[in-house]
From TrEMBL:
<dbReference type="InterPro" id="IPR013115">
    <property type="entry name" value="HisG_C"/>
</dbReference>
<dbReference type="InterPro" id="IPR015867">
    <property type="entry name" value="N-reg_PII/ATP_PRibTrfase_C"/>
</dbReference>
<dbReference type="InterPro" id="IPR020621">
    <property type="entry name" value="ATP-PRT_HisG_long"/>
</dbReference>
<keyword id="KW-0028">Amino-acid biosynthesis</keyword>
<keyword id="KW-0963">Cytoplasm</keyword>
<dbReference type="GO" id="GO:0005737">
    <property type="term" value="C:cytoplasm"/>
</dbReference>
<keyword id="KW-0808">Transferase</keyword>
<dbReference type="InterPro" id="IPR013820">
    <property type="entry name" value="ATP_PRibTrfase_cat"/>
</dbReference>
<protein>
    <recommendedName>
        <fullName>ATP phosphoribosyltransferase</fullName>
        <ecNumber>2.4.2.17</ecNumber>
    </recommendedName>
</protein>
<dbReference type="Pfam" id="PF08029">
    <property type="entry name" value="HisG_C"/>
</dbReference>
<comment type="similarity">
    <text>Belongs to the ATP phosphoribosyltransferase family.</text>
</comment>
<dbReference type="Pfam" id="PF01634">
    <property type="entry name" value="HisG"/>
</dbReference>
<keyword id="KW-0067">ATP-binding</keyword>
<dbReference type="GO" id="GO:0005524">
    <property type="term" value="F:ATP binding"/>
</dbReference>
<keyword id="KW-0547">Nucleotide-binding</keyword>
<feature type="domain" description="ATP phosphoribosyltransferase catalytic">
    <location>
        <begin position="65"/>
        <end position="262"/>
    </location>
</feature>
<dbReference type="GO" id="GO:0000287">
    <property type="term" value="F:magnesium ion binding"/>
</dbReference>
Amino acid sequence: MAVAAELISLQSLEGRLLFAVPKKGRLLSASLNLLEGADIQFRRENRLDIALVKNLPIALVFLPAADIPTFVGEGRVDLGITGFDQVQEHDAGVRALARARRNSGEELSPEESAKPQGCETVMELGFGACRLQVQVPAKGGYAEGKDLIGKNIGTSFVHLAEEYFARLELEKDGLEGVSNGDGGYHLGARKLRTKIIELSGSVEAACALGVADGIVDLVESGETMKAAGLKAIDTVVDSSAILIKSKAPSNPAMVDLIAARIGGVITAQRYVLCQYNIPRTRLADASKITPGKRAPTITSLDEEGWVAVSVMVEKKRIAPAMDELMLVGATDILVLDIHNTRGS
Ligand SMILES: Nc1ncnc2c1ncn2[C@@H]1O[C@H](COP(=O)(O)OP(=O)(O)OP(=O)(O)O)[C@@H](O)[C@H]1O
Ligand SMILES: O=P(O)(O)OC[C@H]1O[C@H](OP(=O)(O)OP(=O)(O)O)[C@H](O)[C@@H]1O
């Protein structure tokens, strides 16, 4: 991490909530938009991975998305933005480590046992949607995950891939549904027959180059997979960006404040405000079309028998909702952008 000691001392971090943000990649720009919407003001110095927030007792820590669950899970950082897939992979890695230590007879120290491990999901953030999928050459003979048992699998998600193939191997051996009690599938004392090969990027090239028979990698549009001559045969995780928090944050009230601000921005991005006039006799029909997040706000109009309705509608539903409102007799339908929200 490029932290210039002369610019940001450890003392300047004292009393500040630490908030981890992806330093690059697919989640960076939407994460920065969220921070801006939540009025978290900072200036990131060139090459510096820590930024002090000007208007709140927070410091932002820019980290690779894959490392954020570790920092938050160990309580080194209070809050973080990362992909659900990364949290799942981290948790699978923690399970694998615990098993390895148990198998080698190593005891946890009292401090380790007492320390709250793992992170909690605060909310989904509405971006970074993708799927972690098992992909194979489109023209090959593999049709489902179990066809790859005993083969070579290239992936950056080694722990999730191991658990995925452990489950398939257990099923194949007639031990369907065995999870051995720690939340993820594993083979107990037996060894995984499928070979998981760790790759750190451009995983889609592994099959064509003969390194792997199949891969476990992320897919969004499917373009990368198609261009590499691959097809998906199974989904391991459905993912999107999430806000996570440590189980023992340094300042729970500040965590709640940031979560409320970010929640407000997300709601504002997802909804529009729809206003219309309608005869009171048709209100029940209109309310079915636009029920609102909780309930529509109804005000009487000066004109006898008419009411004005103000209601939040999901952006993706607004066009058909307007069509339907017209059909039940609504007039003067207006749609307004919501700049920010709180408590909705
Ligand atoms: N194609 C994609 N579409 C949408 N979200 C994605 C996509 N690829 C990755 N993501 C999400 O973004 C997260 C970070 O992935 P990304 O590849 O951008 O990270 P990175 O830090 O640049 O890592 P790397 O250097 O390994 O590429 C993933 O864990 C996933 O949640
Ligand atoms: O389905 P698509 O929309 O084509 O996206 C999928 C690609 O995006 C991710 O890689 P990224 O571009 O982040 O680079 P990487 O291979 O270096 O991880 C992922 O690993 C796939 O390669």
